[in-house]
Amino acid sequence: MKILLSTYNFYNKQLNTKETRKNIINNLNTASFINNTGNDTVSFGSKTPAIFINDLRDLPDLPCGCCGKKMLRNSVVNNFLNTKITYPAIIALKKLKAQQYFNESKSSEPMREAYAFLKFHAQKNPTLTVNELLSKNSVKETRRLLSPEASEACEEIRAMTKLVSHNSKYLTDEINKLKPDFHKTEKRVFKELSTLSKKYPDLNYNEILNLPNVYEKYLSNLQKKQNDILKQIEYIANGLDTQNRKLIKSLVKKAKVIFTEEIPEIHHKRGRVISEFNDTLQNMRDVPVIRKILNLIESLPDSKTDVDAFMIKGSQKNSNLIAEILLNRQRNTFEHVKPHHREGDNGESNIYNYIGLCGKCNSERQRTGYDVFVQKHPEMVENEQIQINKIIDYINNGILTGYDDYPVKIQAALDTESKGAIKIDHKKLNILQAKSNRKKREEMYIQSKKKQNSKKEVKIFKFGKGYFTRKK
Ligand SMILES: [Zn+2]
Q: Which of the residues 314, 368, 457, 467 has an alpha carbon 20 to 30 A from that of 94?
């Protein structure tokens, strides 16, 4: 049965064509794995001393400006994806073979060359991930000696190593350590995954979701909900004339075919059903019954709001990606107050046009003006103020730097974009206090470093925004 394709076979099959391999790599590159901007580590000599935070996405416990949920720091999520999900290269490369992502005898010459190249460097650096290996200067230098094709193949292998999965017990335990303040749907999804991982600790999420008993349960739940909505639509359509009633009936029939007869590998079922309805009925929107039907069809369960839909979608996804999706919905992300892609009038990509929204709220807003958005999310008015208050606290305490003008400028931006619906009060901002606290933190930091280095013969000096040590 097609439903039962295991991920391994699924990807193995896919990886046979270069085109799909490329697609997977492109998908992964757009995923957050690649850019690790973690500034968590205290590294003396770094240009950004760890005493300060200079990115609002990295403020601890910042609540989302819309839903008010506590967000995961951006660097914490990046760090998790890069260090907890990705295996060290030496293990990942072995697992690529064991999990059949990479088959040496069937691979092209450049792929084999790239694999050998990475294996060689992995053996010399057994703790580093492929990502970390490839960003090492010495590795970069030798990589230049490879053929362009083999160098490109290194990228393919880098992407593949992200697919090497951990078992469900490990992933669940690691996610738990982050104590994410999940939204309702994600909380329930994670609870289900935790329960399943107790039952099948050695399988990964994808394998569990493809177990016949597990898969069938979520699928039948989902299909029941879909069916209920379609039934309601047919019932309401009784209020229409014969011709339109027939039209609705044929749309419902098409929807049932998509939901119950199409194989799982065909995606966007819900989206296609909704488009069918919208495209067919768009000229009849003023008819109240039609409007009701269009509203109902929009209420079909989707993976953002429905556990069963999430699980069915998840059964088609790599295990690591499932974890990433969950964390991304709780991650602190930059939200462009004035949308970045507004036709003819793009919002700027700088801090004065950013507020922090969790991934889930951010993906919901898109380009809607805040005056319209807050009608659906009235809690945003209060929660954005709570967020700004917290940011002001971080500025006043000398922790957040580079944001002294932020409260005033973001107030103006929010006022304009929301047409006065979101009014921010920034009276608590105290730049003098901020400056004095920053100085105190600097002094404390230098003192502690001096203490640490007292036995070593080093001198501490400041250059630009950073602190450096130099041998006396
Ligand atoms: Zn939110």
A: 314
